[in-house]
Amino acid sequence: MSLEQLIDGEPVVATAGVEILEQALVDQAVTTAAAEWRPPAAGTEDSLAKLAESDVTEGANEIAIARLLAVRPHFVDVAIARDVIPGMTDTMFLHAGPPLTWERSSGPIRGALIGALLYEGLAASPEEAEEIAAWGGITMSPCHHHQTVGPMAGIVSPSMPVAVVRDADGEGVAFATLNEGLGKVLRYGAFGPEVIERLQWMGNVLGPVLAATLRHVGPVDLQALIAQALQMGDDGHNRNRAATSLLLRVLGPGLIENESVELSGRSEVFRFIEGNDHFMLNLVMAAGKLAVDAAAGVAGSSLVTTMARNGTDFGIRLSGTGDRWFTAPAPIVDGLYLGAFTMDDANPDIGDSAITETVGLGGFAMAASPAIVGFVGGTAAGAVRRTRQMYEITVAEHPAYQIPQLEFRGTPVGIDATMVVRTGVQPQINTGIAHKDPGIGMVGAGLVEAPMECFTQAVVALAESV
Amino acid sequence: MIDRVTIQSGRYHDSVRLMQASQALRTTNGVEEALVAMGTELNLALLEDIGFDPQTFVAAGPNDLIVAVRAADEATVDSLEQVLADALAARATTGGEGDLPPTHVVEMAAAAIDANLALISVPGRYAFVEAMAALRAGLHVMVFSDNVSIEHEVLLKAEAARRDLLVMGPDCGTSIVGGVGLGFANAVQPGSVSLVGASGTGIQQLTCLLDDAGVGIRNAWGTGSRDLSEAVHASSTLRGLAALDADPGTDVIVVVSKPPAPAVAVTVREAAEACSKPVVVAFMEPGSTLEAAANAVLEKLGRPSVSFTSWPIDDTGHRPGFLRGYYSGGTLRDEARFIIEPITGPLSLTETGDGPWLVDYGDDEYTEGRAHPMIDQTVRLERLESAVDDKSVGVVLLDVVLGYGANPDPAQELAPVIRALAGAGVAVVANLCGSRSDPQGLDYQATQLNKAGAALFLSNAAAATRAAELVGGAA
User: Fold this and answer.
1) Does any domain span residue A56?
2) What is the structure's pLDDT at B475?
3) Which of B7, B98, B221, B260 has its Cβ near the most Cβ atoms within 10 Å?
4) CA B66 – CA B217 distance, rounded (Å)
5) In A, which residues are within 8 Å of B97 by CB distance?
6) How do the domains of chain B map onto residue ranges?
């Protein structure tokens, strides 16, 4: 559109503001669309103006999103955390979300830390484990600081097996725990004997068998699996049934043919993955972590590179503000509760799994997943509407992740924090709900919105940086 | 009397809509005072001024909607809920689940319809961000909003120049683009004359005069009240001028503006002289009138000059007294001043002193917390009413501006007070600024105002001249 075109063309007018001016255009039969404009989040108007004035911001998000989308995540190996995770020590315990202390930790984090101490053999009883943790006998550090992500409590202890996901086209590498399944599991804060036994089996059998299988079948292209799974009804966060099935299909020949591993182990692994619809979730998360780490560190960029919760705080990070976290109290999830559980049983939002929404999956791809709309008490059409709303706060459409219901439009990807504060539209996250007390586990699933306060702080800080 | 204040967080309506809602509540039986407004500092101060307890709205911020009501009893207050709901009822543009979700910022609304122009009228403090986003999305921008800083105006216009886009505004009330009126604009016939410049009512008056003379308009680009200031240095006017000079569909160009900064006036005149097409420059300074500019255009087109339509009445024999002017258009008021002062001597531009006045009720002083008088005539009507019994007033001069965006039937609101003024012996003279295709109906408005007792002139200069004649040498 140039000035010349303004003279010759017919005006097609977008409006924001006074309704009577929009009405005057309607009366003239002009093609027009009105924004339902409202003031930006309180306290951001000067920062938004400063960012709009700045040359630094121009093109910054385009650079960041291009890096995010260029990553080719391949599942290449399973290894022991202490051997591969950068900065990991024998007394370090990684957790989900922004930085946290034992004192401020919620039930699921405490329970999972207790379980991990028992699993590591650093404590003989839950009571002793609690004492060690409270006394400062362990170092707590966010997964996100170590190229790692973990769902719910996200506890990664030194001896745990972790999935290794590499960028086939680059240098990046990311890690995630292996998914334990549902029921009484560590990530929901359970630490009973069956939990510890399962973790031991995962370390002794699941990890080594998967590693050997991957050697046999070669790296698994996760992006290809996720892209297919979206067209089979997954959202990549709360529903991973299709992706898990596809993964098992890829691993299948290796599990059958690889006689270097005992048959009983291969059989157990097959049954374990087959019995856990969420097995793929952790791999989707590692793929996401690889992508957001590639997008980090672009000066002036308001692209969100992290959304993560530790059960106490919800935290985000932007590409243009380095390692700084912007936090707000983690909200309670609005959703469907299992059995007799209610909102009163729920822990505040928890887990690194919002990495999926950060890369255009989960709540951002709900339109692809009619099977899970029940979580929001809505309809399939409502899920489409919610996904469509996310396009307003994102900078791109994912070239690989497409939504059949939207004529194969790419999912909304790359949250722009300035758009969140300008529109008042908060990123929506599909998530599981943990019981607030340690040891109980999952009580439901539903939908939660990332707190506006995180984005308000982030935009103010970004404006200070330009 | 009871007071009730409620606060609704995160609910937003534009100021015009809120003023209309306030008005709807105030005119309900049993209501003494009502204010529906966003919790800006200004509005909070206003609430306190009209006696509401600050404790009841201490928690409100600019993103909160406040409804404050003072009424005879609880039942009345309760009954207002429906009145308010009706007044604030959402536009029926979005439906239930599955429909396209709403957009909240202008560039997203634009993307939905592949727009090429953004019309921004959000409160001034937010307008820069919205306008910059629109430019970066490749849109031409009209910023109707005022209260945008001059630094931001300069940045917007530099960005637009870089992208070969046009910024009309900030504080741009009127434009016609490709035959479409934006903001306050009249439904004039299409043609080959194009206007550019910094004067909203100047553009409206000039396009209406040309329309009356049978001359059509191709484009009229308002460039914002400060475009011809030192700081902005006619950025949009000069770029518009160059584009119009290159436009095969434009035969004559008019540059119209409030008085420019002297150095900028020189630059613009030079640019006008350098154009390949005839250019009429109309800076609204003493000695120049919009009527003269319209006739200059006719001359360039090789047409004879005309006398513009008027609807005179027998307005002789009015009671003795001063001239009082009640304008809604700034340029129109200034034009009237420059015509009348040489005849009658100096006029006050504010409602002060016992002498003659010529007040622009579109000025910020009178529009705080209110819509522009072209939409909401409340203040002007009040002042006109008080002139009925003010024996010092002999002649009343006003403008009635029609067109898109303006009050749907100004004559209906003005007729009673004009009748009262005429009945009291006051001569009423008005500039009726409109075109025959305007939605309010030019002839209908003229007939109603004539019947009520006002002499009407399509040309503001003619109206001002008539008013000056009536008061003679002693305003």
Assistant:
1) no
2) 44
3) B221
4) 44
5) 378-379, 381-382, 385
6) 2-87, 101-171, 179-307, 310-471
Centroid of chain to Cα B175:
12
Last residue of a domain, one of A243, A262, A284: A284
Cβ of A124 under 8 Å from any chain B Cβ?
A: no
pLDDT at B371 over 90: no
Closest chain B residue by Cα to residue A45: B126
| Per-residue pLDDT reduced to its tens digit, B435-462 | 999 999 999 999 999 999 999 999 999 9
User: Which helix (DSSP H) or strand (DSSP E) does residue A428 occupy?
Assistant: strand A428-434
Which alpha helices (DSSP H) does A323-363 contain, by range?
A: 355-358
- Check if A31 contacts B (Cβ < 8 Å): yes
Looking at residue A225, its amino acid is L
User: Smallest CA–CA separation between B162 and chain A, in Å?
Assistant: 11
CB neighbours (10 Å) of residue B469? 14
Considering only CB atoms, A53 lies closest to which of B139, B155, B249, namely B155
Subunit contact A392:B104, Cβ cutoff 8 A: yes
Identify the band that residue B19 occupies on the pLDDT scale cut at 50, 70 and 90: confident
Asked if residue B91 has pLDDT above 60, the reply is no
Q: For domain B179-307, is the CATH number 3.40.630.30?
A: no
Q: State whether B63 and A42 contact (CB < 8 Å).
A: yes
In a domain, A398, yes or no: yes
CA distances from B178 to A27, B203, B218, B221 (A): 15, 15, 7, 10
Hey, are the CB atoms on A13 and B115 less than 8 Å from each other?
yes
Residue A439 has pLDDT above 80, yes or no: no
Mean local confidence (pLDDT), A264-281: 96
Tell me the CATH architecture of domain B310-471.
3-Layer(aba) Sandwich (3.40)
Per-residue pLDDT of B121-133, as tens digits, reads 999 999 999 999 9
**Per-residue buried b or exposed e for A5-31, using 16+ beta carbons within 10 Å of the residue's own CB:** ebbeeebbbbbbbbbbbbbbbeebebb
Whether A2 sits inside 8 A of B165 (CB atoms) is yes
For residue B187, the chain A residues in CB contact (below 8 A) are 28
The domain defined by B101-171 carries CATH number 3.40.50.300: no
pLDDT bracket for residue A377 (50, 70, 90): low
Q: What is the pLDDT of residue B63?
A: 80
pLDDT score for B92? 42
Closest C-alpha to B223, from B296, B161, B173, B276:
B173
Instruction: Copy the structure tokens of residue A28.
Output: 């003239």
Nearest CA-CA partner of A6 in B358, B243, B410, B188: B243
Residue B88 pLDDT level (bands cut at 50, 70, 90): confident
| Edge-first strand listing for the sheet containing A220-221 | A148-149, A173-177, A161-167, A73-80, A220-221
Tokens, residue A123:
């404590």
CA distance B46 to B207: 39
Pairing of strands B64-71, B2-9: antiparallel
Pick the CATH number of B2-87 from 3.30.70.2660, 3.40.50.620, 3.90.180.10, 3.30.70.60: 3.30.70.60
Q: Is the pLDDT score of B369 beyond 70?
A: no
Give buried/exposed letters for B49-60 (b at 16+ CB in 10 A, else e).
eeebeeebbeeb
Give all strands (DSSP E) within A287-421, no chain letters.
Answer: 304-310, 313-318, 326-329, 334-337, 350-351, 394-403, 409-415
Q: How many Å apart are CA B362 and CA A169, to the nearest integer?
A: 63
pLDDT at A373: 80
Q: For residue range B230-264, list pLDDT tens digits in order.
A: 999 999 999 999 999 999 999 999 999 999 999 99
Chain B residues with CB-CB distance to A31 below 8 A: 113, 115
The ipTM (two decimal places) reads 0.92
Q: What is the pLDDT of residue A275?
A: 94
Q: Where are the beta strands (DSSP E) in B49-163?
A: 64-71, 117-120, 140-143
